[in-house]
Amino acid sequence: MAAQGHSEGQSVNRPPLFDGEDFTYWKTRMEYFLHGFDFQIWSIVEEGDLIVTNEKDKWTEDDRKKISLNYKAKSILCCALRKKEFNRVSACKSAMEMWEKLRITYEGTDKVKETRIDILATQYERFQMQSGESITQMFSRFTNITNGLAGLGKSYEMGDMVRKILRSLPSSWTPKVTAIEEANDLKRMSLEKLIGSFPHGP
User: Fold this and answer.
1) Fewest 10 Å CB contacts: which of 43, 62, 161, 191?
2) So where are the chain's domains?
3) PANTHER family, alphabetically (predicted)?
4) Over the stretch 132-191, which tens digit does the pLDDT of each residue have?
């Protein structure tokens, strides 16, 4: 069954659908979709419409292509929104304005965004494996934090995240942690490889 809020998002030919739930997840997927669909479309969404200076009756073929791309960017965003979300942005004049309005609605102003980053960064710094938690559950909780931060523009080096996971493990994992540190270059190790080193729990 498709996840709530993104039921249309499994096809590479259709944009992920947003209904107001989990904006950070949708925004990241939408960026990837637009990059793959047409990078120029993503540039229009991110930076604004392509500029046409000629009057309509003097449009060149290049002008018409620019206008078409501008409308296509708006159309794709509209197709990615449920009715409630579409109504929020239906009066916007450009794809960039639509995108920015959604971003501010769900991420807040820069001040609110900074506060959310601070909260998630604190969760990251204090991250520890919880009692009775499996490696898979811990990893899922960890990636929820790091993905949330990435969606707000803050990211960590892979090596730093690998070390963070290792430091979050209780003392019962010390022999395995030591073995991993001795057998691997932690700067080059991926989180997936790290988690794969603990397939059966402590």
Assistant:
1) 62
2) 23-107, 110-196
3) DUF4219 DOMAIN-CONTAINING PROTEIN-RELATED, TRANSMEMBRANE PROTEIN
4) 888 889 999 999 999 889 888 899 999 999 999 999 999 989 998 999 998 888 888 988
